[in-house]
Amino acid sequence: MKHRLMCLVAPLVLLSAPMAFAQARFQQVNEISVKPGQELVFENYVKKLAAAADKAGAKTYWTAYVVSLGKPGATYRVALNFNSWTDREAWSTIPAMMVKAYGQQEAERMMKEGGSATERSITEVWENLPNQSANAGGTPAAPGNFVRVQVVRVHPDRSSDYEAMLTKLKPAYEAAAGKPVIGRSVLRTGANSGYTYRRTQQVGKMSDFDASSGPELLLKHFGAQWTAMSAELNKMVTFRQEFISTRRADLSRVAPAATSSR
Known about the structure:
single chain; Alpha-Beta Plaits; 2 domains; 8 strands; 27% strand
């Protein structure tokens, strides 16, 4: 039972190097579904984890979000960054951090409390695609207050074609007056890895999403060509999903160096 509990809770937060959010090669995203009515219990547990990291002096940093639109119930997403699998191999586990901060008995009690509030968790690793991303040089060192995520799955044999098309789209975003920062990444660990793609756009306030950054921007840039390009993209795609998340600073633990610059 104890092993099952650790497996359930441990994926939430692991050790992450204190690097700028947008500069890491990889990003691990842990998505946690919380039982109805247990949101405050779960959030209290996450805050205790942050306190444990402080007490243990851990180099543990993460950014937490709650999905506002596009997913059912209480869905939390926790993002951790790393530049190589060697870096990730050095991560410590939550149980070790909790025990060091609170002692064995209290750590087990807290983990049981947090685990009882969760319904399921999924862990994925995404790799940045700098050649397909746009205006990344202007990305702030800290995450925005809101992030719009679009997940697209393509036919397994069309992944190279899809990436080539994304490369063609990049100049449209870079030429746009608003210079929208569009991040692109491909799923490396998780279901349908290798041909599942993610588009992210972070903003400071929701009204920023009113600015053109989608099909209308591409139509303006490519003109009549966009109709054929759009049709070709649609032929490749087998699945689409979109949602918006709100950053929760109270559930995050940001590296000191990143705090001042983001």
